[in-house]
Amino acid sequence: MHEVEDIGLFKILPTLCDALSAGEVGYCIAGIKTVHDVKVGDTITDDGNPCEKALPGFREVKPVVFSSIYPMDSAEYDELRDGIEKLTLNDASLVYEKDSSLALGFGFRCGFLGLLHLEVVQERLEREFGQSIIMTAPSVRYRLTYQNGQVVYIDNPSEYPDPSRLEMAEEPYILYQGPDHHARHLYREPHHPLCWQEGRADVLHPFG
Questions:
Q1: What b/e string do you get for 69-88 counting C-beta neighbours within 10 Å, with b at 16 or more?
Q2: 105-120 residue pLDDT tens
Q3: What secondary structure letter does DSSP report for 159?
């Protein structure tokens, strides 16, 4: 719960007002100190007269590509943390948590919407926040089924267990349905080099 200090409208300059109505674009200052206390899409309501349920349509972001980010200099860990926190203010699709490595020290395990999103975040951290960073190879989330029936999800290769204990291991895939010329464009180098480099692309029907 936070106490609202000011509300206003976004015009040429921010303009104070008494209330915001449907269709208006404005802001709310509530003295929120931690970025993680709110998320894009949250419903704001009155503590004394709360709404029955949150507004529909908001869904949690589901990252599909994961990579760890470490500072080149371990002394810059705090600066990297601040940079990522500021980045999430206008990029709600970026998900992160603390991570550590024996070789690279302390960093953050981040989830992205895809490889392009990963590259954009890397570029923004380096250009806008002046960070010198190391990023691990991207990976996806695996669903592992143990021989005893237990099912777990991992997104970090270092967490992969002994294969002899597994019944099966599954990874996400995309089933493409559409015109042949679109598939031909996506599958050929250099449009999707990751498919070729890791052998992750498969064609169910030959090109016409």
A1: bbbeeeebbeebbebbeebb
A2: 999 999 999 899 999 9
A3: G
What 3-state class would DSSP assign to 119? Answer: helix
The helix (H) or strand (E) run that includes residue 39 is none
Name the band, by pLDDT with cuts 50, 70 and 90, for residue 58.
confident
Distances 142 to 17, 153, 162, 166, 199 between C-alpha atoms, Å: 49, 6, 14, 12, 17
Element (H, E) at 206: none
Q: Is 41 left (phi over 0), alpha (psi -120 to 50) or beta?
A: left
Residues 125/131, Cβ–Cβ less than 8 Å = yes
Sheet with 14-16, edge to edge strand ranges: 14-16, 6-10, 26-29
List of domains in the chain: 1-59 (no CATH), 65-135 (3.30.70.870), 141-172 (no CATH), 173-208 (no CATH)
DSSP state, residue 99: E
Q: Could you tell me the two tokens for 109?
A: 């395990």
d(CA 20, CA 204): 53
Angle, helices 77-89 vs 115-127, to 10°: value is 120
Per DSSP, 139 falls in state B
Q: Is the pTM of this model over 0.85?
A: no
